[in-house]
Design brief:
Helix content: 25-40%
Distance between the termini: 19 Å
CATH superfamily: Glutaredoxin
Structural class: alpha+beta
Order of helices and strands: EHEHEEH
Oligomer: single chain
Largest sheet: 2 strands, parallel
Radius of gyration: 15 Å
Number of strands: 4
């Protein structure tokens, strides 16, 4: 689908690596221990300590195309794929 998946968390790289190994992740993870990216996207949890589990779909133009602010893992990948298809179809229709 020509999409790139990147995970970002406030965990240190060695903690992220254990998470990657445990779940067999195949996408890169970025360690944001200073929470600069997390804060820029407004993804810090209510108490301000951790980040919420959120997904941001960023379009080819670099803009946020869709946000899932509180992700539940069940069915989430299918939701993201559906949204990518929807946006791709809309873009193809606008240019064609």
């Amino acid at each position: 689908m020509n999409a790139l998946v990147v995970g970002i968390s406030a965990d240190k790289p060695e903690v992220q690596q254990r998470f990657i190994d445990k779940f067999g992740l195949t996408f890169p993870m970025i360690s944001d221990t200073e929470k600069r990216i997390i804060d820029a996207y407004g993804a810090r949890a209510v108490l301000g300590v951790a980040a919420t589990r959120s997904t941001f779909l960023i379009g080819p133009d670099g803009r946020i195309a869709h946000v899932w602010p509180k992700v539940k893992l069940e069915g989430h990948a299918a939701d993201v794929v559906a949204k990518i298809r929807e946006l791709s179809a809309a873009t193809a229709g606008a240019s064609g």
